[in-house]
Amino acid sequence: MSKLKKIRKALKSVRVKLFLMLSLIVLLIIAFLILVNNFVFGQFYLYSKTKDLKEVYGVINDYYNNPTDIDINSELEKLAINNNFDILIKDDDNINIFTSNKDFLSTFGEMNAMTNAINAGELIEENDKFIIRRLRENKTGISYILLSAKLDNDYLLYIRIPVSSIQESVKISNNFLYLIAGFTILISAVIVNFVSRKFTEPILELNTIAKNMANLDFSHKYRITDADDEINNLGKSINQMSDKLESTIKQLRNTNIELERDIEEKSKIDEMRKSFISDVSHELKTPIALIQGYSEGLLENVNTDDESRKFYAEVILDETNKMDKLVKQLLELMKLEYGKREFSDKEFNIVELEKEVIRKSKVMLDEKQVEIELLSPDEITVIADDFYIEQVITNYLTNAIKHVEERNGKKRIVIENSVNVEKNKVRIKVYNTGINIKEEDMTRIWNRFYKIDESRNRADGGTGIGLSFVKAIMTNYKNEYGVVNKDDGVEFYFELDLKI
To answer: pLDDT digits over 331-347, tens only?
Structure first.
């Protein structure tokens, strides 16, 4: 920003404008005083001295009307000195009685000269007792105010004052005003700067608060003082407006969040519906085709004997049951994946649950002649939904039974619980002897309906969504799960939170 722009910006500020305005007012007052001093002070001073002349006339007249023991000449000297007057008194024979200034006497030495001078002057005031005129002495060029009067004792009184003293007073007064003006401007600058700062700082603070409000920042508030003025009231109003705006915007944000959630919820439901329809359509093709084929065989009497018809009916019933189971599992999986299932967490012994799952799988283990071993302490208390954790263990164990193969003359499955106190977790591992999983299949097996061995999976009655269940449940719990290839086998694992 150039210097010119900075200056323009500074001149536009309220503080600078207020400072300049107050400074201008101070200067105008001083200029007014100088003008008054030049044009009014002289007239006022003339009026004041004229009044003094009349008062001195009265005092002198009293001196001669009421004689006392006082020395009149001494009193007249004092009056002349104190008032800066020239006093001349003559008797009716034009003999000098008193004079305070010999020059005054020599100027009006002759009666005729005095009379002519008096008559030539500018009349200021006249009555039956005295005449006051403004005179100019030709010889010296000095102007005077002259009072000529006749006392009650018939003495002639002349009192004069030089007008030059008035002009000098005006000049001195002006010079003093100039000096005072300089000091006043300096002092006023400091005072005006303080006053302008005092007025503009609250305004600047309010401006900053307003800018923050425009940027939706309502953390700044105006500091309310005890002063009951307009700025304080404005600050209160802005604070109230800030609180109301903040409250309104929070409500709008909450409403917006709820609306976004509703939209996201609807989107998830639509996605879940489409995924469900797609998966069901894909997975039900084979059982529907089988049911259709065997149903047509029954209708067309392909086999007339009762045993064949019974076999056809059993196949149809078996495929129907598989379809029912698949649809239910898909619905449950969709709810888990899209966060529509709430868990009923509680404390339970995971070891007891594992033993129960092993007991339920005893028929399958005996059928495949599998040795199973549980490596664990007697009690490990975890916090989770035991219903869904039982499904996870069952899926792992069922998967291990399906894929277990003989190694060193044995088919082995090992369930092991490893406690990690630092992480406050327990890792449940299910190992089976058999073929390792290919690297490219390590992540794919967790997808819905992914089957490494399609034919064996179908023969064993699997749906291909067991590991997807595990993934969905563990994702909801935000706990780790996975699979690791071991020597002569495969190990699946998942983690649960321990009771604190």
So the answer is: 776 677 766 678 899 99
